[in-house]
Specification:
28% of the residues lie in helices and 15% in strands. The protein is of the alpha/beta class. The strands form 2 sheets. The protein has a 4-stranded mixed β-sheet, with no helix packed on it. A two-stranded parallel ribbon has the order 5-6. Helix 3 packs across helix 4. It starts with 8 loop residues before the first strand and ends in a 10-residue tail after the last helix. It catalyses: a 6-O-methyl-2'-deoxyguanosine in DNA + L-cysteinyl-[protein] = S-methyl-L-cysteinyl-[protein] + a 2'-deoxyguanosine in DNA; a 4-O-methyl-thymidine in DNA + L-cysteinyl-[protein] = a thymidine in DNA + S-methyl-L-cysteinyl-[protein]. This is Methylated-DNA--protein-cysteine methyltransferase.
C-alpha cells in the first residue's frame, strides 16, 4: 500500500507598484502570482492557509525587480498546466527583459506557426504573472492585446522594463 501525498498550499499577499500580489506555494514552491481582478484567478479558498514563510526569496526578488535591480528571476516554480501551456510558459521565460515577442513569433518558436491563438490562450492562463513574463507578449502589429492583469498593468510593466515608466505611480 502506498501513501497518498496531499499537497500543502500556502499564500501571502505582498504590495507592489501594480497593486497587491497574492503569492501561492504548493509544498513550499511558488505555484502562483495573482493580481487583484486578474482574469483566470483561481478562487481564494484554493490558495491554502496564510503563511509568509515560503515566500522570502520570492519577495526579495520581486522587490529587487520593482526597484530596477533585477532583470531575471531565479526561483524554483511549479507550473501546473498542459504540456502545451508549459511549453508556452517556458518560451515566455526566454523573452529578455525589456523586449517583446508576438503570439505568432512564440508559435513559430514552438514549431507550430498556426498556433498563435492557442499561444494566446496559454499565455492568458499563466499562473505566475510578472515572474513568468506574459506581459512581454504583444500582437502581430506591435499593439497591446489582452492581459489577464489588465491592459493598463501590461502597458505599465512594459514601460517600466523599457525605462520609460519607472516612476509611474501605482494605479491601485
Amino acid at each position: 500500500m502506498t501513501a497518498t501525498h496531499f499537497a500543502t498550499r500556502q499564500h501571502t499577499v505582498v504590495d507592489s507598484p501594480y497593486g497587491p500580489l497574492t503569492l501561492v506555494a504548493t509544498d513550499g514552491v511558488l505555484a502562483g502570482l495573482y493580481m487583484v481582478g486578474q482574469r483566470h484567478r483561481p478562487p481564494q479558498e484554493s490558495f491554502g492557509t496564510p503563511d509568509p514563510r515560503p515566500f522570502g526569496p520570492v519577495t526579495e526578488q520581486l522587490d529587487a525587480y520593482f526597484a530596477g535591480e533585477l532583470r531575471t528571476f531565479d526561483l524554483p516554480m511549479t507550473l501546473a498546466g498542459t504540456p502545451f501551456q508549459r511549453a508556452v510558459w517556458a518560451e515566455l521565460n526566454r523573452i529578455p527583459y525589456g523586449e517583446t515577442r508576438s503570439y505568432g513569433e512564440l508559435a513559430d518558436l514552438l514549431g507550430n506557426p498556426s498556433a498563435s491563438r492557442a499561444v494566446g490562450l496559454a499565455n492568458g492562463k499563466n499562473p505566475i504573472g510578472i515572474i513568468v513574463p506574459c506581459h512581454r507578449v504583444i500582437g502581430a502589429s506591435g499593439g497591446l492585446t489582452g492581459y489577464g492583469g489588465g491592459l493598463d498593468r501590461k502597458q505599465r510593466l512594459l514601460a517600466f522594463e523599457s525605462g520609460r515608466g519607472a516612476d509611474t505611480p501605482a494605479l491601485f
